[in-house]
Amino acid sequence: MAVKIKGNRYMYGEKALPAFLPFLKKSLSVDINFEFEKQPESAYIINEPAVHSAFVQELGIQNLSRRSFMKAERILHSHGHTFQEIFALR
Questions:
Q1: What is the C-alpha separation between 67 and 61, in angstroms, rounded?
Q2: Same domain, yes or no: 57 and 87
Q3: CA–CA separation, 86 vs 49, rounded Å?
Q4: Are residues 66 and 86 in the same domain?
Q5: Partner residues linked to 16 by β-bridges
Q6: pLDDT tens by residue, 34-53
Q7: Which domain holds residue 72?
Q8: Within this chain, do residues 54 and 27 fall inside the same structural domain, yes or no?
Q9: Interval 48-87: pLDDT, tens
Q10: Do residues 41 and 81 both lie within one domain?
Q11: What is the pLDDT, as a whole number, of residue 63?
Q12: Are residues 16 and 54 in the same domain?
């Protein structure tokens, strides 16, 4: 098993790193089989969206056609996605 970096933005992008997992296990005692339990959806406290109908209607379907008022998507886009931010959320 090897770690592979997705994308090609960085020097090791699209390359397999076969020594990376053994390094993590040895140096940091990382358990690669550990999984966090998914939080129940009831744990997410989120208000109903405040939709300004006239504004949404004015946007129409051509401008910003990708929009959602679904709870899960609003939660996903309500915070940053760096390692530190995701860890803080957990």
A1: 10
A2: yes
A3: 23
A4: yes
A5: 4
A6: 888 887 877 778 888 888 88
A7: 36-90
A8: no
A9: 888 888 988 887 777 666 778 888 888 777 777 788 887 7
A10: yes
A11: 64
A12: no
